[in-house]
Design brief:
123 residues, mainly alpha, 75% helix, flat
Length: 123
């Protein structure tokens, strides 16, 4: 998803004065960073969107690798397939996302100023 090539392409386009071609690269890079941020924080929709994008990339890679017979495309297909497994099916990643979601929705307990006040988050 996020690769250094997007950053290199963006910088190359900006240094050569191709602002029209730099705009789509910067938008794609920004959307990828936002999606990865939501994915890291454990949002279910980000996980679904990432899974769908990886599934489409895997299917497209399988068709391209079968028709062009390129070892690079087979390696790319393996990479997308492994990423799809990790994001959607890996038990350890599921536990991580659950922990991130629990941490995100946790309301910290406030310490009362004196012992007589009740904690409002307690009930």
């Amino acid at each position: 998803m996020l690769n250094g090539l997007d950053i290199v392409l963006l910088l190359g386009q900006l240094f050569h004065g191709n602002v029209q071609r730099a705009l789509p690269v910067s938008i794609r890079l920004t959307l990828t960073l936002v999606l990865l941020s939501y994915l890291y924080r454990g949002f279910v929709r980000a996980r679904v969107v990432t899974g769908v994008l990886l599934l489409v990339a895997t299917i497209y890679g399988a068709v391209a690798a079968a028709s062009l017979q390129s070892w690079v495309l087979w390696a790319l297909l393996a990479s997308h397939s492994f990423s799809l497994y990790v994001v959607c099916l890996s038990p350890s990643v599921r536990k991580f996302f659950a922990a991130q979601k629990a941490q995100r929705t946790h309301i910290p307990q406030e310490v009362p100023a004196n012992g007589n006040e009740r904690n409002l988050h307690q009930y």
